[in-house]
Records
---
Amino acid sequence: MASRSHVDVNERRLRPIYDCLDNGNNRKAIQEADKVLKKQKDFQCAKVLKALALLRLGRQDESSVLLQEVHEQHPVDEPTLQAMSICYREVHKLEAIADMYENAYKARPDNEEVLSALFMAHVRLGNYKKQHQTAMALHKLRPQKNPYYFWAVMSNVMQAHSDSKLAKTMYLPLAERMTKKYIEEGKIDAEAAEVLLYLMVLELQEKWQEAVELLEGPLGERVVSELNQRATKLAELHCKLGNWEKANVLYRNLLKENPDHWKHWLKYLNTVFQLIDTGYAQPSCSKEGDGDRTDKVDCSLEEVMEFINQQTKQNKGGILLRGPYLAQMELVRILQERRSELLKLAGPPSELFQQYFELFGSKPCCAADLKMYFCLLTPEELQALIDKFTDSLELSDKSPTYASEPKHICRHITVLQLSRCAGVYARQSVEELLNVSKDLILRYRKGLEFGKDLLSTDLQPSDPYLLFAAYLLVDLWQRTGQERYLWQAVVQLELGVRRSPANFQFKLLLMRLYVEMDILYPIMWVALGIFWLPCAMFGTMLRFFSVNHKETTEYLLASYKYGSFGKIREFVDFREKLQRSFQYKSAATERLLLDLILETNSHTGTEQMLTYIEVDPSKERFVLSELSDNRDFSVMTCWDPPSQFRIRDQEMSFKEEIAWLHCRDLILRILVAAVMAGREATQSTRNGTAHGDSHQPDLTNGTNDAPNLAGMARVVRELLPRFVNHTDACSKEFADPRIYSLQGPFRTRLSAYLEGKHHILFARVVECFLIIYDLQDNGLSNPDNKDSEILKTPVTDILQTLVERSKCSLVKEEDGHASINVALFEHLVMSTESISYISTLMGVCSHLLKPLKAAWSKQTRKKKGQKAPEQPAVFDKFTALIEELQAAAKSLHHAATQFDPVFMALDLSALSLTESLTDTEEEKLCEKAVWSKVERSFQQSSHEICELLHNKLQYLHTCHI
C-alpha cells in the first residue's frame, strides 16, 4: 500500500511536466522538472523529461549529459524507459534504446513489457538475430502467447532476407520446422496470420506442392483476410506447378465473380493456351450447357470465345466492364503472335475496335486501351478506322460544330488521341498543325461552359483540348526550331492553369517547357544559377528520406504487433529501395557541394564547414551498382506513336545520371580530402613534425625517395586518377547531349561539363595542390623545376577559353527571328562552380605555402656580407595563378550582369519573341505576365551568380601569400 502511495505521488509530481511537453511549452517543462528535482534530486524520470525539453529547445549537449547520467544508472521503471526512448528516437540513437532495454532486462528478466520493448528496439535496428533471441525469450516467459513464438519465426525469415547464402540451407528450413511443430501440436489460433506466415516460408523455399496442400487443407479455410485470397493464391501455385487445368478452373471462377480483373484475364488466357499446347482434352469439354459448372475447364478456342461472350453479355443493362472486351483483343493478339490458323474464328480486329469505341469512347481510358492493340491493324486499316471514328462525331475542323455535352467532348478527345498515336499529325504540314491547334483552343474555350459550376479542385471537361493543342505547338517548335511556338504553348498552358489550378498535366508540361528554355523552375535551379533555393529543396528531399526510415520502422513495429507478417518484408523492401535511391544520394551530394561553396568565403570558413559535413573521403559513400531508379515517367500524358516513344529513354538516362553522380561524388571527396590534408600538414608542422616524422621539414631543397604522406593526401592521390579515368570514359559516351522525349527524363549537365573541359581544369588544379603539398617533404622547388609549370599554363589556358565563351548577349537573332540565348546560362553556371571548387583548393595551397614562405624568409634572412638567395619560383607562380583566377572571376561576373534584363534595360515583351494565337485581350495580358516571369528568372539567376562570384573573389583575395 505504501509503495502504491509512493507511485501516486511521483505521478502527481510528473503530471505538470507531461502537460507542458504535450502543449509544446518546453521552457515551462524545464522549470517544472527543476521543481521536482529540488525535492527528489535522483528522480530519474524527471531528469529524462527535462532532457527531452532541453532537446526540443535545441540544447542537445545539455540534454545528452542528463541522458547519459540516467543511462549509466540502468533505469528499470517503465515511464523513465519510455521517455528515454522518445529522446533517443529524436536524436536517431537507436542503438542506445536497445542497450537501455538490454540493461533493464538484465535487472528484471521476468518483465514481459521490458522484453517486448527490447524486441521492438532490435526491430528498429534491423538486428534480426537478436530479434529471434529476444522473441524466444518472450516465448519461454509467456509460452501461452502464440505471437511471441511467431515473432521468432518471422525473425528467421528476415535473417533469410538479409543473407541469401544461408536462406535456403538454414534460416528458412528452421522457420518451417518451427511452424510445422506448432501446426502438429494444434496450437495455431483461429486467425490466419500464422497460416499466411507458414505459406510465405513455403513459397520462399519454392515448395509449391506443400503450399497447395496447406491451402487445400483445413488451415487454408482460415485464409480469408482478403477477397478471394485463397483462390487467387491457389491459382498462382498451380501455375507454378504446371497444373494448368486446375489453374484454368480457378481463374475461370474468379473471372465469373469479377469479370473486370485484368490480371486474371491474362492468367486465364495463358492457362488456356498452355492446355492447347499440351493437347489436354477431357469429355466435359465437348458437352453443351455446362458453362455454369464450377469445375469446367476451357481447353479450346471455341470455349474461350464462348466464355468471353458470356461475360460481355452480363454487362448489358448494368455497369459496363472493360475487362471482357479487352480480353477479346488480347486473344486476337495472342493468336496473331502465334500465327494461328484459328485467328479467323475471332473475327476482324477492326470490328472489335469499333465495338469498343462505341461502348467506351466517352471514357478517358479508351485511347490508352486501344493504343495497346494498334499492332493488330495495318496502317491502312488503322487510318480507315480513325476516319470512321471521326465521321461518327459529326464535328468539323473547318466549320466548328461544338460538342453539346461533356461526353461528346470526351469522344472527340479520344479520336484526337488515337489519331496522334497513329501518327496522323506527324504527316501534316506546319500550317495544318497550326490551324488544328487554333481550332482546339477555340473548342477548349467553348467547352468551359460545361464547367462553370465546378470547384477549383475539379478539372474542366475541355482541359484535354488545351493540352493537346499545347503538344501540337511543341511539335511545331521541334520541327521548325522556332521558339515562338514554344512560347505560345507556354502562354496557353498558363491560361489553362488559371482556370484549372488542379490540372497537374498542365503544370507538368509547363514545367518541362520552362526547363527546356532554361527558365527558373525548381527542377533546374542549380543549372540556372539559383543556388540558395536548392539548399532548401534538397533539405526537404533529405528529410523525406530520413522520415521514410523512421516511419517505415513504425509500420514494422505495428506489423509485428498485429501479426501482419506478410507486410514486413514489403516495408523492409520499400525502405531499402528508398535508401538505395540514386535521387537520395544525388540530393545528399549536391547539398554538400552547395554548402561547401555557398557557406564559405575563406579557408578558415571551409575548415569550419568540415565539422558539419560528415564525409569520410577515404570511404565509398555508396555502391553505384546497387542504386535504384525510382523515377516514374508514366505520370506525364503521352499520345505519341509507339515507334516514337523510346522505352530505353529511362535506362539511358539512368546510366547518364549515375555517371554524373559519380563525377560529383569524386569532386566532393577530393575537395574534402584536400582540405583535411592541408589541416593535417599544418598541424604536424606546428607540432614540429612532418606528417608524423620526427625530423624537421626541409624547407629549401631536400629530397626524400619515399615521402611519408599524410592519410588524406594519399586519398587525394588515389581519387584523382579515378576522377580522370571516369571523366575520360564519360567523354567517349556522353560528350554529346542526349535528347529524350518530352515525356521522358531531362538530360544531366554532364555533356556541358565535359564540353567545357571543366574536368580537365579541376584535375589540373588538384595536381597543383599535390605539387605544393609535396613541398612539405621534398622542400621548395628550384626555379627551373618543371613541375611548377603546371601552376600556370594548362589552368590559365582553360580559364581564358571559358571566359571568352561567356561574352555573349542575352538575346540573339537567327533567320530574322529574335530568341533568348539560353544555352549560355548552363556554361556560365558551370564556370562559376568550377571557380568555386578551384577557390577551395587554392585556399588549401595558400594555407600550405604561407608557413613555407615564412620559414624560407627566416632561414634565408640576409646576413652581413652575404647576398640574399633568389626566392623560389613556386611563390611567384602561385601568386600569378591567383591573379589569373581573380581576373577570370571578374570577367565571369561581368558576363553574368549581361543576363540581367533590368541592368541591360531590356523589355523582353517588346522584342516580338512570340505572337498571339487567338489575339484576345486575356491572352495578351497572360503573355505579358509570362515575359515578366522570364525577366524575373533571368534577373534572379544573374544576381545569385554575381553574388557567388563576388564571394569567391573575396575568397581568392585571402589566398595571396
---
Amino acid sequence: MNLCWVVCWVIFLGVSVVSPYVAAAATNASLPSRPAIVNIGAIFTFDSTIGKVAKIAMEEAVKDVNADTSILHGSKLVLKSQNSNCNGFLGMVQALRFMETDVIAIIGPQSSVVAQIISHVANELKVPLLSFAATDPTISSLQFPFFVRTTQSDFYQMAAVAEIIDYYGWKEVIAIYVDDDYGRNGVSALDDQLASRRCRISYKVGFNSGVSRGEITDLLVRVAMLQSRVIVLHVNPDSGFLIFNAAHYLGMTGNGYVWIATDWLSAVLDSSFLPPETMDVLQGVLVLRHHTPDSDRKREFISRWKKLTGGKLGLHSYGLYAYDSVWLVARAIDKFFDQGGIISFTNITWLRDTERGGLNLDAMSVFDNGSLLLNNILHSDFIGLTGPMKFAPDKSLVQPAYDIINVAGTGFRRVGYWSNYSGLSIVPPETLYAKLPNRSSANQQLSTVIWPGETTSRPRGWVFPNNGKQLRIAVPIRVSFLEFVSPIQGTDMFKGFCIDVFTSAVNLLPYAVPYRFVPFGDGKQNPTYTEIITLIATGQFDGAIGDIAIITNRTKIVDFTQPYAASGLVVVAPFKKTNSGGWSFLQPFTPLMWAVTASFFVFVGIVVWILEHRINDEFRGPPKQQFITILWFSLSTLFFSHRENTMSALGRLVLLIWLFVVLIINSSYTASLTSILTVQQLSSPISGIESLKASDEPIGFPVGSFIERYLIDDIGISKSRLVALGSPEEFANALQLGPGKGGVAAIVDERPYVEIFLSTQCTFRIVGQEFTRSGWGFAFPRDSPLTEDFSTAILQLSETGDLQRIHDKWMTRSMCSLDDDEIEADRLRLKSFWGLFLICGIACFMALVIYFLQIMVQLRHSDLAHPETNVNSISGRFQRFLSLIDEKEDPSNRDRKKRNVEERSSEDQLERQSKRIQTETKAEFNSKQLTL
C-alpha cells in the first residue's frame, strides 16, 4: 500500500513539473519562429566629438545584447552604421538606404538638423527613430510619432540655465548660438524659461556653422559694447572653441564676465584631453552635463571602456545614452517577437515614378509592424547606464537632471545639480526623489564657483555699455513746490531736494553712470507723473527722478528704488480758534461719558443702600428720606464727603472700589478742564477723510497727481466734487473762500507738499490722521540692474545721516507748521474708562448676589423655625422675601451670636489649657519615676 502511494505522488509531481514546459512549448509552437538576424541602423557623424564615442558604445552594446541569452533568444542583433556627416540631405539618403536591408529601427542621428529631416522619412516608412543626441525641443512627438528621444530635451537644459541665472540674481543675458534648428530653438526655449522668472535675453547673436575667426571677433566686439556680462553659449564644439579663443584675445574671459556653456562643452571635456592653453581659456566657465546616476554597472562599463580605448578617449553622457538606446531597441524587439510580431515590409506603390522612373522610389517599403515595435519602445521600463529608461506620456525620458560643473585649474569640478523635481541642489537628484519636492528659494543652493578672473565673488553681471550713450533721465518741470525739483535758469541742469538725493546716490555707486537730464513738462502746469512712468516702460526714457510717489499701478510697469522720502495723503482744512465759555466745564467729557458716569453714581448709591438697609439706621426711614439719602450718598462720594457710615463688609467693598473709580475720573476731569481753560483750542467742521467723504462739499487736489484716481476709485468720492488746483496760492485761496463761495472745504495732498504749504499758511492745519503710507522713489525700467544699486546707495545715505541733512536743507519749516496735531480737542471718552466701570459693575453685581443668597438662607431658616407661618404661594413667598429685606435686623441677635462665638472660643481655650496641664503633670510624674 505504501508503495502505491509513493508511485502516485511521483506521477503527480511529474505532471506538475512537466506541464508548464509543455504549455510553453505549445505556446512557442503557436508563435512564428524568430529570425536568425535582426537588422537595426545607426546614423551619426563618425568623426565628431559625440560620434567617436557613440560608435564604440553602440558596438559594445550590440556585443552585450548578443552575449545575453535572456534576450532575443537565438536571434542575432546586427548594427548597420551610416555616416551623415551632420548633413541633412546626406542623412536622408542614408536613411533611405536602410530600407534595402530590412532595418526595423534606426538609432540616431546626433544632429537636431538631420533629425528634423529624417523624422519625416521614419514617419512615412513606420520605422522607429531613436535619437540619443538630438536635443532640439521643437521636434514634437505629435508631428513625428515615430521619433523617440532617448536623451533629454534642451527644454530642460534651458530650464536649468534659467534657474542658475535667477539663482545668482542676474536679469539680462546675451545668447550666442549657431543659427540652425538646434541653436535657434534652444535659445527660444531659454527665452521662455527666463521670461517666466522675470529675466530676459537682452541680445541674441546667431552665426553660421562655417563662420571664420574674423567674423567671430567682430561678433564679440559688438557683444563687448553691450551692458550685460552674462553670456550663454549654445553652439557646437568647433565654433565654441573658436569663440572662446577670440573672447580670450579680446579680454572677455576675465573678471566681471560670466560664461555659461551648454552640454556641448561637457561632451568635449569628458571625452578629450585638452591642452593647458585651451584650459586656460575656459577658466571659470559654468558647464551643464546630463546627469547619469552612479551605479555598479556604470562603474564597471567605465572601467571596461578605459581598457577598450587605452585611455585615449573618454566616455561622455551621449555615449551612455547611445549604449542604452541599443538595449532599449533590443528589449522592445524581444517583446515584439513574444507578441507574435513578424518582420515584413510592403512596397510603397503610390511613390512610383511613372514618367521618368529614374528615382526608383518603388524600392521603398513600409515596415508592417512598426507601430507595434514603437509601442513596445515607449512602454519600456528598465534601469540602464544613464538611469531609468522610461518614457513619460509626452514621450520624454523621466527624471530629467543635469550636473553643473565649473572649469577650474587643469580640470573641472561639480558645483551642484539641477533636476526638474527639486531645482538646484548640492545633493544628487536620486537622493531627493525619495523626499517631497521642495523648490523654495531657501532650498536652492550651489557650491562655491570660481568665476573668470579667479574670484569667488559673484559677478555683478552687467556694466554700463561702452558705447558713449548716456542714460536719459526724465525730470518733471514743476511750477509749484520748487523746493523738490526746479530747473536752473540758463542751463540744462536742475536743483532741489530730489536732485541732491539722486546726485549723492550716484556718487556712492561703485561705477560711473553717464546720464543727462531730460526736462518733461510745458512749464505752465505740473506734468502728469503717470505719463512719465509710461514713457519709461515704452523705452523713451531710461529712468525718472523727482517727487514720484510709489503706488501700485506704477509698480506694475516700472521698478522703483528704495523710498528716499516718506509720503502719505493727508487732509488740510481751515480752522478757527475757540475760547473757553460759560459751559466749558462740560467739555472734558463726551455726552456718553457724562451719561454713563451719572448712571453709575445712582447705581452705586442704590447698591450700597440695599446692602446697608437692614443693619444701618442711616439707610432707614421714610421712602422720601431714603431716596434723598441715596442721591446724597452717591453724589457726595464725588468729593469723598459722604457722612453715612457703611457697616456691612459687602457695602464697604463696593464703596472702596467705587471711590477708586471716582478718584481716577475726578483726576482726569481736572486735568482735561485745566487744559481747556488754559490752552487755546482749535476747531474745524472736518475731522478727517471719513467726515470729508460723508459730506457733499468740494475737495481740492493738486493737478496732474494720482490723488484724483485714488479718491475716485479707492475712497469712492464722486468726480464732480473734485477740484484741481495748481499752486500753493490756489490752495490757500480755495480754502479761504470755502465751499459756499466757490472754494473747497479741504484739500487732499501728500504730506511733504503740505508741510511746505503750512510753513507759510498759518490759518490751515492737518486734520485727522495720514490715511495712506507710501514714499518717493526713482523709477527705472523693469528688471533694470540700476534699481538695486540705487536702493543700496539710498540706504547708505540714510544710515550716514546725509539723507536727513539734505531734507533739512530744502524743507525747513516755520513755527506755525509745527502744530500738526489733530484739530479736534481730545475729549475724554467712554472707551478710556470702560475697564474701570466694568470692574465696578462686576463688584456691585457679585455683592448683590451674595447678599440675596444670605437673605434666601435666612428665609429658609425662618420657615423651618416657624412652620405655622409657611406660605406656599409664589406671591406670598415673594412678599415674605421683600419683607425680610425691608426688616431691620435685631442688634441683640447679632450681639447674641457674637457672645455665643466668644463663649465657644473661651470653652475651647479652657479645654486646651486643661489638656496642656494634664500633659505637663504626666510628663513630670514620669520623670520622677525614672529618677527613682
---
Amino acid sequence: MEKAYTSPLKIALIFCLLLCVSSHRAAAKERLRRGIDLSSTHSLISDTRLPGDFFPLNYTLDLRPKLSESTFTGKVRIFVQCNETSDRITLHAHHELQIERSDIKLQRILDSEDSDELNSTEVKIRRASHTPKKPIFVIYLADTVKNGTLLELEIAFSGMIWESAEGLFKGSYLNKNGTKTEFLVTTFKPNNARRLFPCFDEPSFKVPFDFSLSRPEEYHTLFNSDPFSTEPLDGEPGTVVDHFTSIPKISVFSLGFLTSKLVLIKDDTLVKNEEQKVEIYVQPGMENAFPTLYQKVHTVIKAVEDFWGVKYAICKLKIVGLPGLTAVKPIDNWGLIIFKESELLQASHFMLAQEMVYQFLTHSATPLWWNDAHITRAMAGFLAATIAKEHTEEFDEKWPMTTLYSLYYEFSKRYPHSRITGMKQESICSKTELFLRMINYTFGFETFRKAMQNFYEEKRCATFQSENIWNSLTIQAHRDQVLDKSISVNEIAESWISKDRLPVVTIERNYDKKEAKVSQKVYLRERPHDVPEQEKMLWFIPLIVVTEDKLDFTDTKPRLWVKKTRETTMTGLPEASKFIIVNPEEIGPFPVNYDVRNWNLLAEFLQTENGRSNIPIFTKAKLLHDAWNLAYGGHLSFATAFNMTLFMRDEKDHLVWNPVFTMIDHIGRHIDSSAVHNKFETYVRILLTPLYERLGSEAQPSEEHWKENLRSLSKTFLCRAGYKPCIERAQAAFATWRNAKDPDAETPVENQYICPVFKWGTREEWEFGLQRVINFPKERKQSERTYLLKNLAGCPAQTEKIERLLNITILEENGNFTENDIFLIFSMLSGGSNGYTTLFNFLSNNWDTIRQRFESKTNLWDSLISASTGVFTTQEGYDMVSALYVKRQGEFGSAEHIIEKSLKNIKEETKWSDENLPVIEQWLDDYLKTANTSANKFMG
C-alpha cells in the first residue's frame, strides 16, 4: 500500500485542509438549499442522499487490481469535517464492496472549528455495516463528534472486477495478431464510484484527490493526471505501482483510469517544439487510421475555449479509441475521454465537441445534484451542434428539426412518454437544448456567450444549479437591453422546461387595422383534447416576425414577448396583400397557426421561383410541417394543409422534404380504411415520382449523404404505393434468393425490397418468406428473423396471407413461433386497416378456440383485443367492434377495460373522419382533375 505520511507533511496537509473548510461548509449549506428546481419531477437518477453531517476534504486512494483474478483490494484515506454533531459517519459503498470492521481506522485531528490545536487521537468505533438494499455504509461511533471536528478516516476494502460497464470493469479485444488483449477501465458517471471504493458519491462534494495504482509492467495506465513516479510492487514481481500527480477539486464521478496496451499517436499537426497537450491512444497497428483526428480535436478545443472565454484547465487531454469497449456512450472523465474504437474512427466535430463541453460544464463546473444534470446535456448538445455547423456540414442541416419534430409528436399526445421515465429524461434534455437555442437567437449570440462566460467564471471548480445559469442570462440580457427588465430568464425557463407540453400560437389578422390577435394554448394532436388543467398552462413566448415586404430572416429580435397571457395584440403589420411569418426558422419550439387568408398568401408565394428562393430552408420546412400537423390535430382545414404542399413539385431541398414523408405516413395510416385512400395514394405517386426520378434509382459515387437518405425514403414510399420499377427490382432480387442452394444461410435481399414483395408479390413469394421464418437457423442473427416476420405480417395487402399466418401461429400453434413472435404479429397487424380488420374477423370467427388457447395467457389475450379492436377510425369499424362487445359481453376477462377504451377511441377517430375525410376527398378530387394521373408505372 501507499507510503504513510511523515509528520511534517501531514501537518502541512491539515493546515491546507483547514483553509478550505469554510468554503466546504458553505457548499454543504448550499447542498441543502434548493432553489427553483425545473426538473424535480424528472429526476435523472434515483439515489439515496447522504445526511450531510460529514463532508470530505481530501481523498488518498490506493488501488491494487488483479486482472487475472478479476479482483481488487484497496485503501482510501479521507479527511472529513463534521458539519453537525453526530455519532455516525454515513457514506456510499456498494453492497458488493467488502469492508470489515477491522479494516476501518478513525483518528481525530482537530477537536472543533473553534480550536486550532492539533490532537491526533483514535476515535472508537462501535460497529460498521452496509445498509440493507441501499448503497450506504454506516460507521457507528462510540461517542458523538462535535460540529467542526476534523477526522482522518482510513478504510481498506476489496471487491470483484466485473465485465459489465459499471464501476471498475474489464474487457478484451483481438489485436492485429489475433491475440486476446485485456484492459481494465472505470466508468463512474453518474454514481458508480461507490462500486470501487467507499466515498461521498454525490456531485456536490468536490475535493482534491491523490491516487496510486498497480499494474502489470507490460501495461500502462492513463489517469486524470500524469504519473510522477513508478516503483516495483514489493512481493509481486512483474508488477509496478504508479503514483499520480494530485488533482484539484473534482467530484468522485470525474475520476477515471484505463490500464491497457494502447499506444500514443504522434500529433503531426503540432509545430516544432510545441508541447503536446492532447494525446490520442489507440491499439498498436491503428496509428495511421486517424489522419484528421488531431486536427478535429484542436478545432473543437479552440471553439469551446472561445465560447467559455478561458483556456482548457487541464494540462493534458487524453482521448482513447478502445476496441472491445461495451459502454453505450463514451466514458467522459476529467481529462480522459474513452470512445469505442469504431466510434472514434468516425468521430465527428459534433461528437468531439459534446464530450469537450462536458470537460467544462460537468467536470469543472458541476451540477449540485443530478436533477440539474439535464442542463449540462442540453448545453453540450447545443454548443456541439453550433460548433459542428460552423466548421462542417455534418448535420446536413437537419438539426434542430429532427429533435424538434420528435418533441412535437411526443408532447402533443394525451399521455406523453407513456409514463416511461427514460423517455422523460431524453425529452427534458432535448427541450432544454431547444430552449437554449431560442434564448441564443432572441438575445443574440454575444449576449448569450457573455452570460455563459460570467456564469463559468463564478462556478468554475464549484457546483451550480440551473437557476445560476438563468440568473447570469438575465443579468447580461438586461445589461445589453435585449430583454425587458420586467422579465427574468428564470421565469421564461420555468414556463418551458417544467411542462411536458408545448404551446401552439395562433395568429388571426385584422387586415383592415394592420394588426393581429395573438393567442396561445396547449398544442395537442391526439384526440380527445381533454388534457387536465390545460387552461392553466401558459408560456413566455417570443414573437419574431418576418413580413413579405421585408423578408429579413437575420433579425431575430422579438417584436414582443407574450408574457404568459392567453391573448395579446400585435400591431404594425403590413398591408392585406402581404403575408407574415411568425417564429421563422423554428427559433422557438412551437408551431404557429394563421388565419386561412395568410396561409393562402404563403402557399401562393411558395409556388413562385422568387418565393422558394427567398424563404429559407428551415422556414419552408416549418410552414409545411406546421400546416400538416395542425390539420391532423383539428386546428386547421386539410384543404389549407394540402395547398401548402403544392410548391413541393419544384422543391429540391431534402430538409423541406423530410416532414412530407411523416405526413404521408400519418395521414395514409389514418385513412387507409376509407374510399379516399386510393385517391390519396395517387396524390402520393404524383408528389414523389418526379423527386425519385430526379434523384435517380441508384447512388452515384461520392454523392452527398442527404441524397442517399432522400432516395431511400422516396423509394420506400413509392414501393409501398406500387411503383412498378421498384416492385420489379424487388422481385428480381427475391428470385435470386428463391433459387439459392441454401436459402436459409443468408438473406441476400436489401431490406427495402422485402416489404414490396410481400405486399405486391405473389402468394408463392410470400409463402417462401414464411418458410424462411419457420426454418430460420438459430446460429444466425435473430434480429434478421424479426425483420422478416415484421414484414411478413405488416406488409401484405391480401387478406388470405394474413389469415394463413394467423392460422399457423394461433390455431395450429406451430412450435417455431414464440409468444414474443405472436405479440409482434399483433403489433404489426394493427398498423394498417387490412391487418387489423383481418385480425378482428379472425378473432370473431374463432372466438371460442382462441379464448381457450389464451385463457392462461392474459398478456397475449389483452394484446390481441387491443390490436384487433383499437385502431378502427370509421363508423363502420365502430359498429363492428360494438357488435362484438355486445355479443361477447362478460367474456373479455382481463381485456374488458381494453375493448371499452377501444370503443371510446374509435368514437373520437370517427369524429375526426367525419370532419376531415370529406374535405380531403374534395381537395383530392379537384387536384386530380388537372394532375397527370398516369398509372402505367404503378401496380393496379
